[in-house]
Write a structure and sequence with these properties.
The complex is a heterodimer. Helices cover 69% and strands 1% of the residues of chain A. Chain A contains 15 helices and two strands. In chain A, a hairpin with a 7-residue loop joins strand 1 and strand 2. The longest helix of chain A has 32 residues. Chain B has one domain: MetI-like fold (Orthogonal Bundle). In chain B, helix 4 packs across helix 8, helix 11 packs across helix 15 and helix 13 runs antiparallel to helix 14. The longest helix of chain B is centred in the middle third of the chain and has 32 residues. The chains are: A mainly alpha, B mainly alpha. At the A-B interface, helix 1, helix 2, helix 4, helix 5 and helix 6 of A face helix 1, helix 2, helix 4, helix 5 and helix 6 of B.
Chain lengths: 322, 294
Amino acid sequence: MIRGAGRASARPAPRRRPRGRWFAIAMLAPALLGILVFFVYPLIASLFFSFTSYDLVSPPEWIGLRNYEYLFTKDPKVWSAALNTLWFIVFLTPVKIIMALCVAGLLARANRAAGFWRTIFYLPSLVPPVASVVAFVFLFNPGTGPVNHILKVFGIEGPLWFNDPSLSKPSLMLLGIWVMGDMMVIFLAALLDVPKDQYEAASLDGANGVQKVWYVTLPNIVPVLVFSLVTGLIASLQYFTEAAVASGVASGKATVGSGTATTLGYPDGSLLTYTQWLYVRGFANYQLGYASALAVLLFIVAAAFLVVLLRRVDAFNPEGAK
Amino acid sequence: MTITDTRTLLAPGTAPRPVRRGRSFFGWVAEHTVLCVLAVLFIAPIVFVALTSLMSSDQTLTGDLLPDPWQWSNYREVVVSTPLLRWFGNSALYAVCATVFMALSSVPAAYVLAKIKIPHANTIFLIIIVAMLLPPQVTAVPVYIMWSKLHLTGTLLPLILPNLLGDAFSIFLLRQFFLTVPTEYLDAARMDGASEFRILTRVVIPMAKPGIAAAAIFMFFGSWNDYYGPLLYASENPSWWPVSYALATFRGSHGTDWGTTMTLTMLVLVPVVVVFFFAQRTFVEGITLSGVKG
């Protein structure tokens, strides 16, 4: 390795050859085309369709701001859907981060067997999301589920979990905690990366355990926390699969294709998130113009998160983090 | 943090020797008690699913925790009574094609963005990041209209084919990895008269294998686990269902029998876990790379 590097630095820097430029364009062309076709164009087209009424059969009809007027004043479910999404934004990611950080902290101290423990806590996050939701709806099913069965042993009458509108979201949060493993792995790496001499210096200055966490550990892992927080919030903004599958499985109804729309939100609309509502209006009811208006509103909110992310996270700086 | 750092830090068993900073024996016991309790809670769901997958449909209604008798025939029944092979075949087709296509299109693009000076590189990188982070629902309507004009809705092709034109997250991840390949190697190869294509295939790709493996694993499991995409494009056409989508509809369409539902859940879960145990290091490196580099 060292030989190669030494040889290169001993020679003058190579000239940039024109063929390198053509090579670069050829290598980048498919990806650039992909960005144009699957990102830039749809972004602009969404804005256009949001001013139209379009059902995929007859050509789009320009209706000005009527979609937005309906969205803000008449849509019966958009605000409850937005509030459900807000619930996941406020609770899901922060709770996940706190749990992941606590477990990572414990693992960082369990030096010798860290690999073993890490495997156990990481494993659930690998379970395919649909499988984990089906498993949780079964575990927490009120009649025969193991959770309520075990609660009964302790004399507690188990609640309805996924079938109770007031508990369906917290039940999904328990699932979210179960799959916090990917965050935990990131935090564990960051914790182990904190320079040891900083702790020693803090000890010499007489810092106690809490002070060391506050003044040494936290400042070192803040970039990783911010990254996880904002990407987690963006994931909550588009929360779809877990809620949709939980509703379908807990309702016990066979729903396929656009029929899926009939179970979305079960029980009692408590799991209907904003992106599911967009799906219902756009792809079950084929109100593609109105769905585009919902998409534009989603874009505005997501863009606000993005601005924070792009400013705070070094990896997204083109010059690189180093 | 460099790649090598990450690898040594995360390799099991290579952690530094315990430093006893005045920690008492009781502190050690307390920490490990908490860890053990948490570990049991984290493993319990999989154990219960595994046990229930072996129960008769009558027994799943009793609230028993252990199967009696152990009904291994549940597995045969699921294989015989459902188009299981077709579901797995569709999932494999989706995941394998998406991964191969992603590698073909995104590795060269990421290499150019990381190592070759081109005009507007920063702008292109910024657009890729925004494309990666924005919710897919923002662009879903026009993209869906495009595929329906091509008469490809009702198949998984709208989810597979776009990977031929690059995937934003993969390009981002690969670029971060390629940045760590020392430019001296590339310059040395150029001095020896290697073409840019040869440098990419003979120097950069071999050195960035762990990064490419990580991007491939993310793509493979992202596709294997995908529910939203198949719901959007293939839900009306059962012959194109991948197993993740089929599992979501399974309980309602096969009565409300938890036993066989858990059997299918196990069949979906086990392959992923097996792959994880073979490629644990790549998984952990990839996930760390995507987060810690930040």
